[in-house]
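Example record used in the benchmark description.
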Amino acid sequence: MTAVDSNLHALDLLVGAEAGFAMSVLDSSPDCIKLIEMDGRVSFMNSNGMCAMEIADFADIQDQPWPSLWPAESHRLLDNAMAGAREGRICSFEAFCPTARGTPRWWHVTVSPVRGPRGQVDRILASSRDITESVTARKLLEEQARTLAQEVALKDAAIARQNVLMGEIDHRVKNSFASVIALLRMQARLHSSGEAGALLGDAANRIATLARVHEQLHLDPGANELPLLDYVRVLALDLGQALNGLIQLDLDADSVPVRPAQAAAIGQILAELIGNAVKHGGVTRQVLIRIRLTFPGDQMRLTVEDDGPGLPQGFDVAQGTGLGMQICQVYAEQMNGQFRHGKSDLGGALFRVELRLDPVADGPA
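Model output (structure tokens):
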């Protein structure tokens, strides 16, 4: 039997029972379904709808204008939706409307035309679905996001104040070094003819050396370097052991020095990707995580891939709402790098960070 024959057969079965069948369909729906006359009066509401709206007797709202059941701030939405239905269009919106007993509710409303035998719009059908739970959850997430943003702003402000204080401390330390050195050298000149002068001069030179070390450490970050390969190796193996991930390393042989600040950012990305791989692929087993670190030209390329379930269809790092991906994206952007994703030869996810390493200045001879 073809689909057309099946439809015709169903119509034959419903001959004489169309109204009862329609009522059964309307009453079986969990949504609040209303029939609205062309002038906006409510002429029908299904039993589940009255239950959802906490209406004891349909006579209490029968023939009332539909917008009168809603708060005033929603009237324009309803009027526009009914106007669209009268013109044959289907409209939908979300709005707040408490029940007859005052219980707060959010609704997703679809308003559509009901056509007569000749195709003309005779009535309007409004279907309202209770979405209070999802709206409440969404608003809670939005509030949490605002709170987090405020906390981040406060933290950034604290870091900025700390940087100012550290700069002031550094300035005072340098001045103190300079004052002590000048005092020692002055005393050395006064006692230049004796043993005390030599001792004072030696002390001044030693403090001057400390001052140069301090200056290199605090004013010239390029003088501080970290071997990136050793850093990545130790961090990856440590995380693998802590998170029960099987780490497979493929690192270039040459040691590449980087600034601690950049090494810290690279390490944060690596930690997020290893943790993500274990979280999504190693719940019931030990996930294999392959880490490659290469240096094509003057760039660094860090690749982290696993044998987990892979990325979901249509995954987009830029649109993602996960915090780990956002952290990786932010760090990569801060270092003027690129953060990419794809499918691994191992069968799971692949993430790659490509960036140009900051040059590390030579330290004092």
